[in-house]
Here is the input.
Amino acid sequence: MTIIIHYWFESFASFLPLGFYAGIMIGFSIFLIKAGLEKEDGKESIYNLLLIAAGAINIVSVVIIFLFPSNYISYSTITPAERLIINWLFYILPSLVSNIPRIFSFGVIFIAYGYRSKELRHKYLAYAGLSWLVYFILASIVLINPVGFYTSLSRVLVDIHGSMDGIYVSFILDTIFGTVSIFNLLGTVFLLIHGFLQNDRLLKIAGLIYFFGNALFGLSIIPYYLERILV
Amino acid sequence: MAVELLFPFNSIIFFIPYVLYGGYITIFSIFVGLTSEDRTHEYQKSMILKYASIINILVVISLLFVPFGFRTSGSIPSDVRTLLYLLTFILPSILAFVPRIFTFGFAFLIFGNKNRDDFGKYLTYTGIFWLIYSVWASFSLLSPISNIPQLAFVLDYSFNIFPEYELLIVFLQLLSMGSIFGVLGGIALLMHSFKHNDRNLKIAGFIYLVGIAILSLGVIPQYIDLLL
Here is the structure.
């Protein structure tokens, strides 16, 4: 049995998707931290610390992904034990490591920050937090991969079942599981609504980085395909 | 040799995605059209949205009678096959998106400009974004039932310009970027509706965004068909 494991740093093309994704998350998090460092009415507040914590959690959770391998190639039949290790190493752990912390850094913290003052008439940030809470809980269950946004649960299930028609079953499950991303979009929309309507400059920029970063992520895999043609 | 054209009304594979697309566009259009009955906001030229909504619903009905695919028994000449592919790629896209240049793009652009002084710029932004989106969708032959820009396949079938499938994927990725404008239009509409507490446009905006997101579920019958 020969399995060759690849890492993110082996070539520019394989590094770019994670590098791009990390750039989005770090950029987004820096603006969260900056928003947290701004004092409301000259006072420090526990809620500002929450935003700083959210930014820090996001940065740590994305940097950890670089420690995981990016891909593998097998030149022989893989035993069930090896399959189990591969599933955990490539699909389950990276998804959980990136999604579970965000239940707090996107979900719980934005809900708390959105409800920070009784005087606030609009609770858009709380709605953003609620949408992201639902999204990251579901993303943890269906194992949405941080790089590529595909759902790993379908691969793991098909792998365990070992069906000949696995590819179509995987497509069907991917399509069904993929609909959870609507909650990610709703969270982003509410953050942008808050940023624009409340004229909150820092969270507006954070929302725009997150929105355009996710929307343009597909471009980062282009060098990977071009490299495949050239090799 | 026999060729069977597959319409949404005679093929379950296309009926379910058609219902998803038609459903969300129809409900969206109803709520946009209701804006003309809105007396609390005193919009100017709101009838333009009513006419746009009626055209949207008529287009959805007409899509029922457009072939989205075909089946053949026996061998058919390759040029006939190519022609059928082109017909089923081009016709649904053109019929779905060319009218939207007017019913989504220009309608909201004019409506937004007329109400700019009283209601700000977000409706105008909606019109601009949807105008760009509709022009792009018509040009890239976006499939109304799967959100895939089919220009890549049409070019490949007609001129075989993608000798490597990786090039086809790269072209698809680049072409897909235009869909951002559709989402931006929806977000700008929601910003307007939240700012001015417009219930109808708020519901329309949410239906539009959720509709795009769940459209992908329409391909499941095709996978099940392949599976069986």
Q: What stands out?
A: The mean pLDDT of chain B is 92.
